[in-house]
Amino acid sequence: MPQGGVLSPLLSNIYLHEFDVYMKELIERYSDSKRVSKGNPEYAKLRSEIKKLANKINLNEQEKLTLSELSDKLRKTPSVIRTKDTGTRIYYNRYADD
To answer: How many folded domains does the chain comprise?
Structure first.
């Protein structure tokens, strides 16, 4: 729905400027240059094993059971590792549909 004029977006930008400044300070304070996370090698290994089994044409009952167990284990395994050595990032994007 179109707005009645240019005053509403202008007032909105003036009002939200303070929030933009606050978010910029927050990002500078809490984001750092360290890597945020790294891939979990156990997760990658499980995915590879699942892919190998899933690509087979005819699976026997044991292979189906193994595939099911690997899938369950994959769901419980984190895909990335975060430790005290990993950093943090804060992202902010103010979207306006003018």
So the answer is: 2
